[in-house]
Amino acid sequence: MVVYKFGGGILKDAEGVRQIVKIVSRVKEEIVIVVSAFGKTTNAFEKVLGEWFAGNSNYEKSLEFLFQNHIQIASKLFPAGSDTIDTLNQSFAKLRDYLLTEQKRDFDYEYDQIVSYGEIWSTLIVAGYLLQSSFDSEWVDIRNCLITDDNYRDANILWGESNARVCRRFDSGRRQIYVTQGFIGGTAAGHTTTLGREGSDYTAAVLANMLDTEKVIIWKDVPGILNADPKWLNGTVKLDELSYKEAVEMTFSGAKVIHPKTIKPLYNKNIPLFVRCFINPDDLGTLVTSTVRASLDVPVFVKKEKQMLLSVLPRDFSFVMGDNLGMIFHLFMIHKIKVNLVQASAVSINVCVDDERGKIEKLVEELGRDYRILYNEDVEILTIMRHTREAVAKVLSGREILLEQKTRRVVRYVVRSI
User: Fold this and answer.
1) Which phi and psi angles does 343 have, rounded to 5°?
2) What is the C-alpha separation between 12 and 39, in angstroms, rounded?
3) Which of 117, 133, 204, 411 has its Cα between 20 and 30 A from that of 177?
4) Is the CB of residue 206 less than 8 Å from the CB of residue 273?
5) Straight-line distance from the first to the last Cα atom of the chain, in angstroms, rounded to the nearest whole number
6) Residue 217: its H or E element
7) pLDDT at 8
8) pLDDT tens for each residue of 292-346
9) What interhelical angle do 159-169 and 200-211 show, nearest 10?
């Protein structure tokens, strides 16, 4: 058994769905296909959610426009009155009724109940088209398999219960192809959860781990993992192979090619990950594995934008280490602020975080009772793996360095434009 993951960036229209069938038709093994929401659907659902939660009736037009985009794709794949189109209409009616009748609860809870429809609709279309194309396939609602806690918008998988359900549902030998959703899960009480933005890669890795699959292939619109974002730097090259460790370093630093949580479930079972080109499926792409046989020893550049650098200082020059340090980071955890970089000294702690202004303002208010807080807005974290003097000079031009961390293989800078 293998796991294929198809992301929304390559599923923008009916031709993208047809390309999935072409790729799958070449495979003899049993396949679990994990599908993200189409195109910019998640962003569009966030707009619907924001309008609905604010009491703006315009959400109805936004939702109708979003759904019609899916119907237009489906109409190019299925005949009028097909089971798939009928099921899509029923799902839309269910969501519309929810928005009209349900009393609003916590925003994060509502986010998961509403935004998750993007993955439901995309997988209904993909699974329906595979059936229509005479494949032995089945649609699976992952919310009944991946059981999570109720930490909405960033739920944690309950591995014991989920593992048992996944192995029962994705029964080897019963179907050649299973189609299911990335990004979402469900609580034991039946409430939908999400696993964090762009979490479909993680879903694929979790299923591979639980099912002990041969490999995972993530299909993208690039030839593989590149040594930099081509929208940022010119002259990028494809990395034929990466170690798990290097892949974790890249994703944690901000590389968007795969989700940061993806590697650990694969590493734990030594399952190889391939990142391959959706348009040219014969290309080998990039292999991520435990042992790298050959690798271009070229610098790898990663940029993490929209950051804020917080400096926490005691008001009386007392030490901030020890118990104080633990208390400070406990507050970061309580306010659900992920730390991207830390540098500590005897009398200060510098922390770089995503610029989530609402959460940060609450954190600063609480920390400000005992500490003095300084901050720099609109900064970036630049990470260079396998760094050289030339590589550093290439990305630092026109930037002021606010903070630097350096090891033998990796250097990080917090910078802002001059």
Assistant:
1) -140, 125
2) 5
3) 117
4) no
5) 52
6) strand 216-220
7) 83
8) 765 558 999 999 999 999 999 988 766 666 667 888 889 999 998 989 999 988 7
9) 80
CB atoms under 10 Å from CB of 121, counted, come to 26
Kindly report the CATH number that applies to the domain delimited by 300-417: 3.30.2130.10
* CA dihedral sign, ordered 74, 77, 78, 84: negative
Token pair for residue 77?
Answer: 């794949």
Which positions ≥6 away from 410 have C-beta within 8 Å?
A: 249, 383, 384, 385, 387
* Domain range annotation of the chain: 2-214, 300-417
Supply angle C-alpha 102, 103, 106, rounded to 5: 115
Give per-10-residue mean pLDDT for the chain (418 aa): 93 96 94 96 97 95 97 96 96 97 92 98 98 96 98 96 97 92 97 92 98 97 92 92 91 87 95 96 93 76 96 78 79 92 88 93 91 94 94 94 94 94
Q: Place domain 2-214 in its CATH homologous superfamily.
A: Acetylglutamate kinase-like (3.40.1160.10)
Tokens, residue 295: 């690798």
Q: What's the whole-model pTM score? A: 0.91
CA dist., res. 30 & res. 22, Å (int): 15
Distance CA 27, CA 251 (A): 29
Give the neighbor-by-neighbor strand order of the sheet with 399-406: 339-344, 349-354, 300-314, 371-385, 410-417, 399-406
For residue 413, the tally of other CB atoms under 10 A from its CB is: 22
Structure-token pair, residue 266: 């694969």
Q: Is 5 helix (H, G, I), strand (E, B) or coil?
A: strand
